[in-house]
């Protein structure tokens, strides 16, 4: 295969992955069709099957790599709750849909084909990433609670349209999120300030 064809194939595969991430985030596994994914990617439907084999594999490759807390977990543990809180209050909830792993998971977890994949990725990747950073007793349980809080917060922000426009509102919301996360992620620091 010539270099141009290899480059075109790689670009087409990447466009399909981008389109799949967007559609799975927007509609979930059951409602996102491979034909509409191919159309969004401006690719032939046959290429979806050729590159990924199945819709299940497409979901695996398009969504699961994005299920990570790693970009938010850089630096001192004391600063991570603030970084996550800032991310949550500045997340674009109304813009054009791209891959949003939280939404893809929430909209797809009822499907018995992908639910085990989601559970495994959450348990083996996201929870483990977080619990490796959290110190103290019950790190894994506290990690699960952090993730549950963030999933619930994301869902409620979308349902209730809680994307504060005013700087004061945004700062107040960010502060509350940060304090909640500190209580879960840094319980020793919280106990010191209260005791």
TrEMBL record:
Q: What PROSITE patterns would the database entry show?
A: HTH_TETR_2 (PS50977)
Keywords associated with the record: DNA-binding, Transcription, Transcription regulation
Annotated ranges, domain HTH tetR-type: 10-70
The protein's superkingdom reads Bacteria
Which residues mediate DNA binding here?
A: 33-52
Name the Gene3D superfamilies on file.
Answer: Tetracycline Repressor, domain 2
In its keyword annotation, does this UniProt entry include Transcription? Answer: yes
Q: Which InterPro entries match?
A: Homeodomain-like_sf (IPR009057), HTH-type_TetR-like_transc_reg (IPR050109), HTH_TetR (IPR001647), Tet_transcr_reg_TetR-rel_C_sf (IPR036271), TetR_C_16 (IPR041678)
Q: What is this protein called?
A: Transcriptional regulator, TetR family
Organism expressing this protein natively: Pseudovibrio denitrificans
